[in-house]
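Office hours follow-up: a student asked to see two folded examples consecutively, so here they are.
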Amino acid sequence: MSIKSFAAKLFAHKIYQKTQKWAAEPVATQQKVLQQLIAQASTTQFGKDHHFESIKTEKDFAKQVPIRDYEALKPYVDRVVQGEADILWKGKPLYFAKTSGTTSGAKYIPLTKESMPYHIEAARNAILHYIHETGNADFVDGKMIFLQGSPILEEKNGIKLGRLSGIVAHFVPKYLQKNRMPSWETNCIEDWETKVNAIVEETFHENMAVISGIPSWVQMYFEKLHQKGGKPVGEIFKNFNLFIYGGVNYEPYRAKFENLIGRKVDSIELFPASEGFFAYQDSQKEKGMLLLLNSGIFYEFIKSDEFYTDPDGSGPRRYTIGEVELSLNYVLIISTNAGLWGYNIGDTVQFTSLKPYRVIVSGRIKHYISAFGEHVIGKEVESALQEAITGTSIRINEFTVAPQITPAEGLPYHEWFIEFDSEGSGEPENLENFAEALDNAMRKQNMYYDDLIVGKVLQKVVVTKVVKNGFQEYMKSIGKLGGQNKIPRLSNDRKIVDLLKRE
């Protein structure tokens, strides 16, 4: 055992003990976070507008601070972007994480000197929890790669801005710098395909031990490694034993990854976003990710089926951490030390454990199919697909689902656009049998969908095969190839799949 791995084990134990303390007192921890946030922002423009000085309880906060998405908070954000201080948070932010918006164009998410350290600590602590639980720390002596956006930053009114992953690259601890790949120059390449090719050349002969990134883009890296080496990634990188990912569910990719790697590797799931780092997988044995209750974020939760209701004129009921239940679908609402207040990030979560509080990401409140009242969510289509391929040799590269409301003939249906792994036996032998298995799995996942099938309102799912690299070409066509961009698992219209059909 090296000195570095020994030190990592000692540090891991210390962080584990620290985590256990706040996790054992979740309600008190969250109440303390809220009071700290209110105290620090009471003199800001937002704090004055919402009478922070009179907020004493979580109920006071819910009454005085309405739920907002980016569009609703934008008048305040615009003032911050223009260079004004003390608007959403004291002073000015250190950075803006620039993300793609919908109706508003680019979104500028503030990152402050108080919020930025938690992004770094959470990623670090996820690895340390893995070391504590497994005793495996040998990988700290190998090379680590983080597939991320360019670290080149722009500037707007004196505040630097860029992609979150690019900003985070500036905060990599010194003790990881020698192990970290790719090089700064390669990381700065903007074109994703050019960048991945350069990363392959740079890492091919290195002792890669940890690989991290969004699964769909890591898959592209693995495929290029396989093409270059003519053998599984696990043979190219013999000491590669830990995959760290976030952004999407890994399960639909798992079979494909294990085929590309040639063996199983441990994985750690993260739940980061520009708005905050919310959770990480703290155990290889338990389902879900530990919700970070002591990281400068106050959480509220709205039941998904109540989100668009307003029973008393004050909006849907907001639940705090002590009021949530297992397995229900909640819209995640956050208030943070970056100045986001009552902010709807658009993600939905389900709790898998209440001692400690662990969550899975179940989808997006705006990404669903309910063309016929079925309200299918992302977790359901992912679970159905996983069930349909379990025990088979079928491997999935990528997929999305959309309703077909006006078919040329017959009843409407849900259409699954799937890019199968065409190498070896990765495609189903009989597409109709596969569609049948997929439909049966969906009926188990969603009783409303089952009712529509039984009532002959819908016909069974239709599976449409997407050509190899079809999803990559689609993402390239809309200028979102690589980085932190992801394919929505499902949509309530056919905008995505109509473009896919052109590829």
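And the second, which I mentioned at the end of office hours:
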Amino acid sequence: MNAPTTTLATTIPSEHIRIAVNDTTEPFWAAARQHRLVVPQCGDCGTFRLPPTPFCPNCQSKNLSWPELSGNATVYSFAVVHGFPGIPDLLLVPAVLDLPDAPGARLVSNIVDVAPTDVTIGMRVQVDFTPIADGWMLPVFRALPAARDAE
């Protein structure tokens, strides 16, 4: 079944999204299930890191904490994707997002409910969560209303 044609970006239908959960990534996904955005931070040197890894890339420590973030982000880079296998009318805006609460960490996600022509580098966005397969929640981002009026 094809998704309806839209001029606003969306996500891949939830039944097509599967995530891999392991000891390293489970805290991220468990927090998302509670509508919280967390990021791994080295308990020794303070380095934030995404994607989650078992060792700190800076000091190789295994000591880890998962601070909760505000959910604010800034678009670092993005693409516009027209179509998905079996869903040719799907419109996606995958983006690399800077997380101001976690300096040095970037998250790859989708920007939703926005016309792709309105997305810009430096645009401010806020996390939201959408249900996906197996009862998990996927972090997605929406433009902040003031983002269009920013410099």
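Two things to take away from it. Residues 147-151 have pLDDT under 50 and may be disordered. Strands lie at 41-42, 64-65, 72-78, 81-84, 87-92, 94-98, 106-112, 124-131, 137-143.
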